[in-house]
Design goal:
Bound molecules: 2'-deoxyadenosine-5'-monophosphate, fe (iii) ion, zinc ion
Oligomer: single chain
Mean pLDDT: 85
Number of strands: 19
Shape: elongated
Helix content: 10-25%
CATH architecture of the largest domain: 4-Layer Sandwich
Largest sheet: 6 strands, mixed
Radius of gyration: 26 Å
Number of helices: 14
CATH class of the largest domain: Alpha Beta
Length: about 550
């Protein structure tokens, strides 16, 4: 089988136990005869080499040029580079040209080679990117020494909850304390017990968790707030401006209400309602150089609907000049389809063994350039506990997914790339937000708008007990303590992005075509797209591979 594209070259090299620099792969791909070039490069590698570097390839290419004097070996050019994509960054959904759509042998990279043994692939894929090069070559992107990647809020290995009642009390107390502190300075608030004994007609304010939301017989709204001292009912009149906000409320979120006590002090009439929110004037941080991150999620390897061709094209594209500034790859959960996630899911499985699914996923991961820094969090299809926060994959799965030595962290976690903080969260609560809020405020076609509500509530999964399961820990890891510069989710399989008070919210689509369930409920997934974020400007371009 001839080598068609960079991803295939990477696959071939990793099968033989080598990682490769991006430029080395591009050079092999651009050679007149890639397969023999690769064979010679491998043959001539100094003993003990783990990373195939561009100078290894150059010396083979120069050698063969001088030995075949007179033959013209074309310098690599834009057009000869497979997978080069034409993108129109002005259009929201820029489309990549496609390459090699028929690659049936690559459906299962591991199946044919049996090279899924994690030990066969060397660790430490972060090889330095060479920037010097012949004048014919576009310089690769920045030097790895300019990269920085820090993780915060990763609770992997920190789980202490036992699921007992007292743990739930502790986590909700922490939520009220920490989100409440974002509101308390703004109001002359009182605890519920103090408000209960204030005289009728007094002005009062309270910071609490939403305990209950009911409509009254006359169409007004009764919102019960709870704090550590008790509960108090707040009445939102249907014709007041705040009535509209009641539709956005979720149980267990924290907010502040101000109002006037009724004559009998048993209830207060709401004058204003405030959320922890993101300040309107928030100024996001940006990177000091032109560097990009690809934000994806919901790969669903192991599903019959996993779009291997689209993934192969994506991996090929990452090896091209156009993607030279993409130095980070963030994957927000659902690496694999999993087993037994939904009823009758087994009828749509391509790989039935969960560990094998991760092995196949790892083979697909190997196709992306070895010099990308990769960060992954789990999702609801992954083999970690379903309740959130979800710890990062265990040792066993980490060993399987060792290609390119990804950073594996909990769902949610915050990763800061060159000063730009990205809150990564899989997004199960988006189903909840979309189900509870009116269509115009949150829907599947504009998933970023549902994300705006989570930013406003400063919590990734406010409502507990519906779609979202909670594992109580000693603190509430689901609070959005610091405002992120980018909020990245997946799960709903729809692509959408936009800014909320200058924070870029981006939901990254998927790599799985429509499943029978999705057909039955009319979900039309956005599959095979990779949103690319400029970390220096927070601009987004979308590459399409499907
Ligand atoms: O979720 C993909 C999207 O589809 C997400 O919005 C949930 C929804 N979904 C998919 N299958 C089901 C079933 N069987 N019941 C309810 N909701 C479903 P994902 O996590 O990728 O499956
Ligand atoms: Fe998913
Ligand atoms: Zn999901």
């Amino acid at each position: 089988m001839p080598l068609e594209g960079p991803a295939r070259i990477v696959s071939e090299l990793t099968t033989r136990g080598y990682n490769a620099e991006r430029e080395a792969v591009t050079l092999i791909a651009a050679a007149e005869r890639p397969q023999p070039t690769l064979e010679r490069v491998v043959d001539e590698l100094p003993e003990g080499t783990l990373v195939v570097r561009s100078d290894h390839v150059r010396s083979v290419l120069e050698d063969s040029q001088s030995s075949s004097a007179g033959s013209t070996s074309d310098p690599p050019s834009n057009n000869s580079s497979p997978g080069t994509a034409s993108s129109d960054s002005a259009s929201e959904f820029a489309t990549s040209d496609t390459v090699d759509t028929d690659q049936p042998d690559r459906q299962h990279p591991s199946a044919s080679t049996g090279n899924s043994n994690p030990d066969s692939s060397p660790r430490g894929g972060r090889s330095p990117v060479e920037t010097e090069g012949s004048p014919d070559r576009i310089e690769r992107s920045g030097d790895v020494s300019e990269r920085s990647l820090e993780i915060a809020n990763d609770m992997t290995g920190e789980s202490t909850g036992t699921g007992e009642y007292k743990d739930f009390v502790a986590v909700f107390r922490d939520r009220l304390e920490r989100l409440g502190s974002k509101l308390r300075g703004r109001f002359n608030h009182r605890p519920a017990s103090a408000i209960q004994s204030m005289p009728g007609g007094s002005e009062a304010a309270m910071v609490g968790l939403v305990n209950d939301i009911r409509s009254t017989a006359s169409g007004h709204w009764l919102v019960e707030l709870e704090d550590a001292t008790g509960t108090f009912p707040w009445l939102v009149m249907k014709d007041r401006e705040y009535a509209d906000l009641v539709e956005e409320l979720l149980c267990d979120e924290v907010l502040a209400m101000e109002g006037t006590l009724a004559d009998d002090s048993g209830i207060a009439f709401v004058d204003s309602m405030s959320f922890p929110d993101v300040p309107r004037t928030y100024e996001p941080s940006t990177a000091d150089r032109h560097v990009q991150a690809a934000l994806i999620s919901d790969v669903h390897v192991g599903s019959q609907e996993f779009m291997h061709d689209a993934w192969n094209r994506f991996a090929d594209w990452l090896h091209t000049e156009e993607a030279q500034h993409v130095e980070y790859l963030l994957i927000a959960g659902d690496m694999v389809e999993g087993v037994g996630v939904y009823p009758d899911q087994d009828e749509e499985l391509d790989v039935v063994d969960i560990y094998e699914q991760y092995e196949v996923f790892n083979e697909y991961l190997k196709q992306v350039p070895g010099d990308l820094d990769i960060v992954m969090i789990p999702g609801n299809h992954d083999a970690v506990r379903l309740a959130e926060p979800q710890p990062g994959f265990d040792e066993n799965l980490r060993n399987i997914m060792s290609a390119h030595d990804p950073r594996i962290v909990s769902n949610p976690s915050t990763v800061t790339l060159e000063g730009v903080s990205v809150l990564m969260y899989h997004g199960v609560s988006l189903d909840e937000v979309i189900a509870e809020l009116p269509e115009e405020k949150a829907n599947y076609d504009e998933p970023h708008k549902a994300m705006y509500h989570l930013l406003k509530k400063r919590h990734v999964a406010p409502q507990f007990g519906g779609h979202t399961r909670l594992a109580p820990e000693k603190e509430d890891y689901l609070i959005i303590e610091d405002v992120p510069d980018i909020f990245h989710t997946g799960h709903v399989h729809k692509l959408g992005f936009g800014k909320y008070h200058n924070v870029l919210a981006i939901n990254s689509g998927c790599w799985q075509s429509q499943t029978d369930f999705q057909k039955s409920v009319n979900i039309d997934p956005d599959a095979g797209y990779a949103p690319i974020v400029d970390l220096d400007t927070l601009d987004v371009t979308v590459q399409k591979f499907s």
